[in-house]
Amino acid sequence: MITIKEIAERAGVSAGTVDRVLHNRGRVSKENEAIIKKIAEENGYVPNLLARRLQQGRRLLLGVLIPDPETEYGYWKQIADGVEEARREIEALDAFIVFSFFDRHDKKSFIKAGEVLMEQGISAYIAAPIVADGMRELSMRYPDIPYVFIDSSLPDLNPLWDFAQNPIIAGHTGARLMCMSPFKLDLVITLQMHKGAFNGEMRAAAFNEAFTRLSPGSRVINIYADSQEEIYSALAGNLPEDGSPFGVFIVSDQAAIVCSSLERLDCLNRSAVVGFDLSAVNREGLLSGKIFAIIGQRPRAQGHDAVMAIYNHFMLSSEQKGNFSAPVDIYIKENIPESEHWL
Known about the structure:
Blueprint: H1 4-11, H2 15-22, H3 30-42, H4 49-56, E1 60-67, H5 75-90, E2 95-102, H6 107-119, E3 124-127, H7 132-141, E4 147-149, E5 161-162, H8 167-179, E6 187-192, H9 198-214, E7 219-224, H10 228-236, E8 246-250, H11 255-264, E9 271-276, H12 280-288, E10 293-296, H13 299-315, E11 322-323, E12 329-331
């Protein structure tokens, strides 16, 4: 059955022109209108998208595989909000979305959550591949189910689309921001949650390379910690003993948690903290001056655009695929968006 794109190609006009004719949404020349209607009629175009899909006997069910939105300081909720926004746009068009949540610390939890989606007969799924081994295993178990990555990437897998931020560019940006802090920093600590996490390792390595190049003679120490007490202990064992200023580069959304630990250690006033994601607590940290800068990656847009990419692929026969890197947004105290819509 012919699509708007195919009608446009045959008529030698834009898809927008075809849409205006078929849905009476604007003025088009009589000549183009006649050509478009003739092509549509001869090829059985059904102008109502839902009617066309029902005529084809097809149903689109999308899965979303992410950590629980109530965890990790609101970051995953922002992604889920973007998915929900897209769901409302397509809910009348025979397209549906189901969520399944996993514990990022547990490969078995990831696999189980993925299996829950597969059992529901999904057409494709959106995944945050932060449990790398789990994602690899899931893709091997279900090789015929296409998937899209959000939040982070895995270079050895082949998603239809990749909406993750480029971790190397993000790490380099963090280094540049750290060099702009009000302190002369001889020491910077990079904090990661998990060893072997692709996104975190790449961000930290890129930061290390760029900062030592931009600030010759400075040291970078890499530490791993997840819970608040682990972060406190790891920082306490690596701070400069002479009372000099230092920086902390956090590769995840835990900047506010780091600031709490630095306050307990009575050294927040001599630190420059740079982290990721403008969650509610990180927003407060920026406004109060505890956090120097935050790098954003538009989680709402990632969730929304991932859904719409799959929808367009299945429903509108869009052939566009590839890497749609999330932007590297920079937030300081003076430019925080008032509305989450812009995140």
